[in-house]
Design a protein that fits this description.
Number of domains: 4
Keywords: Hydrolase, Membrane, Transmembrane, Transmembrane helix
Strand content: 15-25%
CATH class of the largest domain: Alpha Beta
Shape: elongated
Organism: Leptospira dzoumogneensis
Structural class: alpha+beta
CATH architecture of the largest domain: 4-Layer Sandwich
InterPro entries: 7TMR_DISM_rcpt_extracell_dom1, Bact_Sigma-Reg, Fis1_TPR_C, PPM-type-like_dom_sf, PPM-type_phosphatase-like_dom, TPR-like_helical_dom_sf
GO molecular function: phosphatase activity
Number of helices: 23
Protein name: PPM-type phosphatase domain-containing protein
Helix content: 40-55%
CATH topology of the largest domain: Phosphatase 2c, domain 1
Length: 802
C-alpha cells in the first residue's frame, strides 16, 4: 500500500512541479517583487514595473464602472466593449528603451499610450489577422513623466472579455524580450522531447507488433507536439498562416483523446472499450469540419458544441481503465495524475468564467501527466528486461531437460515414421484412383503430367504424395458431350496437400455424377463446381485452400471454357508462339470471403493449337547458386513452351536446367489435331444457326413464345461460345416467366462478361422475381451509375420490374 501511495504522490508532485517550473518562468519575478519589495521597482530599466492594480474600467460612453486588477475576465459585467485606463508616473525619465508587456487579451484589443495607438511589429507588417493567443509586446514607448495607458477591449469569443492571462508590466526592452524567448525555448525543448519519444515509440512498435499500446502513445505524443507547437507563439515568429495553424491545433486536439484512450485501454485492460472506435470516428468527422472552417469563431464553436461534450465519455472510459489497473502499483499513479489534471481543468474553467483569479495550469498539468506516462513506459521496458533475464535462466534449465527428452523422442519418431509412410502409401493409392484416364477426345489430344514433391518408400516400394491433381472426365451437358478438366494445387505438402487434393477430386467426381439432373451451360457448370469446392474448403476455417483451373472442353465448337482460381496464367501456343491468356483471376477456393463474380474465359482453338495449364511449381525454382534463393521463371517458361511445343515431359526437363523444383508440379496440355472435314462442317453449322435463329424470331413475333424459347435454347446449347445467343435466350425465358432457365442463361453471360450492363439489369430483375438477394450484383449495378434502391423499391415494382 505504501508503494502505491508513493507512486500516486509522485505523479501528483510531477504535475505540480511542471506547473511551478513554467509559472516561475512567467510569474517568478512578479512573486519575488511582491514578497521582497525593492528600491529598484520604480526604476523600469533595472526591474519590471508591474501594472496589475488600479485599472479604471468604464463604458465607451465614459461612464465609470469601477477599479479592478488585472488579469481579469470582464464578461460578467454584461458589456460587449470596455475601456481600461491607468496613469503611470515617472519621477525621472528612463535612460533606456521601454517595452509594454500586456499579456493575452481579447481579439481586437487596441492599446493607446498618451493617446497614440500602439502597434506590434507583426501588426505593422500586416502579417496576422488574429493574435488573441499571443502575449502583446509593444516596443519603444514614448515616455513622459505623466503617462496614460488606455486599452480598448471588444468581445470576440463568447464570455471572454479582458486581459485574460499574464501580468501587465513595463520594463527594459532587452530584458522583456529575453524573458519571452527564454520561456518559448524551454517550452519548445520540452514538447520536442515528446515528439522524439513519440517517433521512437512508433518506429519501435513497427518492429515489435506486441507493443501496440506504445504505438498509440507514440501517435498521441506526436499529436500533442503538433497541438502545443501550433498553439504556441512560435507561429508568429515563423510567419506561418494563423488560420492554418489553428486548424492544425484543433485537429490535433480532436485526436488526442482517441489515441490516448486507445493506449490507456490496451495498457490497463489489454482490450479496447466498445465506445472507443465510434468516438474516434466522431473525432474524425469533427476534424473534417475543422478543415473547412472559415475563421476562429467557427473553430471555437465546433469545439465547444461537438468536440468537448465527447470528452466526458473519454473521462468515464479512462476512470474505468484506472479502476481495472488499481490492483497494480502504477494504477494509483495514473489515478493521481488524472485527478490532478481534471482539477487543473476545473480551475481553468472557473478562471475563464471569472469565478476565481488563477493562472492557466491545465496545459502544464497535461505535460506532467505525459511525463508520468513516459516514466511508466520506461519502467515497463526495465520490467520486460528483468523478465527476459529470468526467462533466459529458466530456458537454460529447460534446454537441458528437453535435450534428454528429445533423445528419447527420437526413437519414437523413427517408429512413427514407418507408420506415417504407410499412411502416405494409402493416400497415394487413393489419389491414383482419380488420375487422368482420357488421352483423346474428338479432335483433341490430352496429355497430363503430375510430379509430387514429397517422395517416400514403404516396404521397398517408392511413391510420391502431394497437393497437385489432374482430373479429366467426360460429362454431358444437355444433349451434348463435353470434357471436364480439373487441375488444382491444394495448400500444403504431403498429407495436408494430399488431403485437399483428394477432397477436390472427390467433389469433382460428385459434381459430374449429380449434374445429369441439373440444367447447366458450360459456364454455370464450371462456376457450380467452383462454388462446391470452395464451400467444402471453407468449412475448414482457413486451414485449407486450393488454386486451380476448372475447364470444360467443347469438341464440336473447338473451344474451351475455363475459370482460373488464382492458378498461374494459362498458356496458348499458336504458330509456335506462346503467350499468357488471362490477366485476372477469381479468388482461390477456400478463402473465408467470396465477394467477386467468378470470371469464365472461352478460347477457340485452331488446328495445331495447344493450351497449357499448370501449377505454380512449373516456374518457381531454387537456383543453384550460393545463396540458393527462390526465383520465378515465368518468361523462361513461356520460351520453353515454344521450344518444346508444349510437351509436358520435355517441358519439365527443360525447366530443371534453370533450377531445382521446390513444389509439386502438374501440367495439362490440350492439343487440337488437324481434321480437314471440320471446316466444311463448321460452315454448315453457322448457316444452320442463322436460319434457326430467324425461324425462332418469326415464331416469337407470331406469339409462339414457348416454341421460340426452345429454338433459342437449342441454338445456345449448340454454340455455347455465342454470348449474344445466351442473352437472347435469357431474355426470352424471362418474358415467358421461366425464371430458373432465364437465370441460367443470364448467369452464363454474367460469368463471361460481368460488365455487360444490359445483362446485369436483366439478371437483377430475375433475381428480384425469384427472391434472391445478391449484394455483389447490386454493387455492379450501382457501379454502372444506376439508382438500384429506387429501381427495385416495392412501390416501383410494376413500373420497373414487370
Amino acid at each position: 500500500m505504501k508503494s502505491k501511495l508513493g507512486i500516486c504522490i509522485f505523479s501528483v508532485l510531477l504535475g505540480i512541479g511542471t506547473n511551478l517550473f513554467f509559472h516561475s518562468l512567467e510569474y517568478g519575478e512578479w512573486i519575488y517583487s511582491n514578497l521582497i519589495p525593492s528600491n529598484k521597482q520604480n526604476v523600469p530599466c533595472k526591474s519590471f514595473l508591474y501594472l496589475e492594480k488600479g485599472w479604471e474600467v468604464s463604458k465607451l460612453s465614459g461612464e465609470k464602472i469601477g477599479i479592478f486588477s488585472l488579469p481579469r475576465n470582464f464578461s460578467d459585467l454584461g458589456h460587449s466593449t470596455l475601456l481600461l485606463s491607468r496613469s503611470i508616473q515617472f519621477s525621472e525619465l528612463p535612460d533606456c528603451k521601454l517595452t509594454l508587456l500586456l499579456g493575452k487579451t481579447s481579439e481586437g484589443t487596441k492599446v493607446f499610450w498618451n493617446g497614440i495607438l500602439l502597434s506590434e511589429r507583426s501588426e505593422l507588417n500586416g502579417r496576422f489577422d488574429f493574435s488573441y493567443d499571443k502575449k502583446k509586446v509593444y516596443n519603444s514607448l514614448p515616455i513622459r513623466n505623466q503617462n496614460k495607458l488606455e486599452i480598448f477591449i471588444p468581445e470576440y469569443f463568447k464570455n471572454e472579455l479582458g486581459i485574460l492571462e499574464g501580468i501587465p508590466s513595463i520594463g527594459n526592452t532587452k530584458r522583456i524580450l529575453e524573458k519571452q524567448y527564454r520561456f518559448r525555448i524551454y517550452y519548445l525543448i520540452l514538447i520536442s522531447t515528446f515528439l522524439l519519444l513519440g517517433i521512437y515509440l512508433v518506429f519501435l512498435t513497427v518492429q515489435e507488433k506486441k507493443l501496440e499500446p506504445h504505438f498509440h502513445f507514440g501517435i498521441f505524443l506526436i499529436l500533442f507536439f503538433l497541438f502545443s507547437f501550433s498553439g504556441s507563439e512560435w507561429k508568429y515568429e515563423l510567419g506561418w498562416d494563423f488560420l492554418f495553424c489553428k486548424k492544425v491545433e484543433y485537429i490535433s486536439l480532436s485526436f488526442l483523446f482517441p489515441f490516448f484512450t486507445f493506449y490507456f485501454s490496451k495498457f490497463c485492460r489489454d482490450k479496447h472499450h466498445p465506445f472507443e472506435f465510434p468516438l474516434a470516428l466522431w473525432a474524425g468527422f469533427v476534424s473534417f469540419l475543422f478543415v473547412y472552417s472559415a475563421n476562429p469563431l467557427e473553430l471555437d464553436k465546433l469545439n465547444r458544441i461537438l468536440l468537448q461534450p465527447s470528452w466526458i465519455i473519454y473521462l468515464w472510459i479512462l476512470f474505468k481503465c484506472i479502476k481495472a489497473r488499481l490492483s497494480k502499483q502504477d494504477g494509483a499513479g495514473f489515478l493521481g495524475s488524472v485527478c490532478f489534471l481534471v482539477f487543473s481543468i476545473l480551475l481553468d474553467i472557473s478562471s475563464a468564467r471569472g469565478w476565481i483569479l488563477f493562472p492557466r495550469c491545465s496545459e502544464y498539468s497535461v505535460l506532467g501527466f505525459i511525463l508520468f506516462c513516459s516514466f511508466r513506459i520506461s519502467g515497463r521496458f526495465v520490467e520486460m528486461k528483468n523478465e527476459l533475464k529470468v526467462w533466459n535462466e529458466k530456458l537454460q534449465e529447460d534446454i537441458t531437460l528437453k535435450t534428454k527428452e528429445l533423445r528419447e523422442s527420437l526413437t519414437n519418431v523413427r517408429n512413427l515414421k514407418d507408420k506415417q509412410d504407410g499412411d502416405y502409401f494409402l493416400m497415394s493409392i487413393l489419389q491414383s484412383c482419380f488420375q487422368n484416364k482420357v488421352n483423346d477426345f474428338g479432335d483433341f489430344k490430352i496429355e497430363a503430367l503430375v510430379s509430387q514433391f514429397k517422395t517416400f518408400e514403404f516396404k521397398s516400394k517408392l511413391g510420391e504424395i502431394g497437393g497437385d491433381l489432374v482430373c479429366i472426365e467426360e460429362i454431358r451437358i444437355g444433349d451434348r458431350k463435353f470434357l471436364a478438366i480439373l487441375n488444382a494445387d491444394a495448400m500444403g505438402k504431403s498429407l495436408q496437400g494430399a488431403t485437399g487434393a483428394l477432397l477436390a477430386s472427390s467433389m469433382f467426381k460428385s459434381h459430374i455424377d449429380s449434374s445429369h439432373s441439373g440444367f447447366y451451360t458450360p459456364e454455370t457448370w464450371i462456376v457450380s463446381l467452383y462454388r462446391k469446392i470452395h464451400g467444402l474448403f471453407q468449412s475448414f476455417a482457413g486451414n485449407l485452400f486450393a488454386t486451380g483451373i476448372l475447364a470444360v472442353l467443347d469438341p464440336e465448337n473447338s473451344c474451351i471454357f475455363f475459370l482460373n482460381a488464382q492458378h498461374p496464367p494459362s498458356v496458348l501456343l499458336r504458330n509456335n508462339i506462346s503467350g499468357f491468356i488471362e490477366n485476372e483471376t477469381s479468388y482461390k477456393m477456400g478463402i473465408p470471403i467470396l465477394k467477386d463474380i467468378p470470371k469464365v474465359y472461352c478460347i477457340s482453338l485452331k488446328e495445331n493449337d495447344s493450351i497449357l495449364f499448370g501449377s505454380d511449381g512449373r516456374e518457381d525454382l531454387r537456383v543453384r547458386t550460393k545463396n540458393k534463393e527462390i526465383q520465378s521463371f515465368s518468361e523462361q517458361f513461356l520460351l520453353e513452351v515454344s521450344n518444346t511445343n508444349g510437351d509436358p515431359a520435355l517441358l519439365k526437363n527443360k525447366m530443371e536446367e534453370y533450377g531445382n523444383y521446390i513444389d509439386d508440379l502438374s501440367l495439362v496440355r490440350i492439343f487440337r489435331k488437324v481434321n480437314p472435314r471440320k471446316k466444311s462442317r463448321d460452315i454448315w453449322r453457322e448457316t444452320s444457326k442463322r436460319k434457326n435463329l430467324q425461324k425462332g424470331i418469326l415464331l416469337w413475333k407470331k406469339g409462339d413464345k414457348k416454341i421460340a424459347c426452345s429454338f433459342f435454347s437449342k441454338l445456345s446449347s449448340e454454340d455455347p461460345n455465342d454470348k449474344d445467343l445466351a442473352y437472347i435466350t435469357a431474355w426470352a425465358y424471362w418474358k415467358t416467366g421461366e425464371y430458373e432457365k432465364a437465370k441460367t442463361y443470364s448467369e452464363k453471360l454474367l460469368y463471361r462478361d460481368p460488365k455487360n450492363h444490359q445483362n446485369l439489369v436483366l439478371l437483377a430483375k430475375i433475381y428480384f422475381q425469384l427472391g434472391i438477394s445478391d449484394v455483389i450484383l447490386l454493387g455492379l449495378l450501382e457501379g454502372s451509375g444506376l439508382d438500384v434502391q429506387r429501381m427495385f423499391r416495392p412501390t416501383d415494382y410494376l413500373r420497373k420490374v414487370s
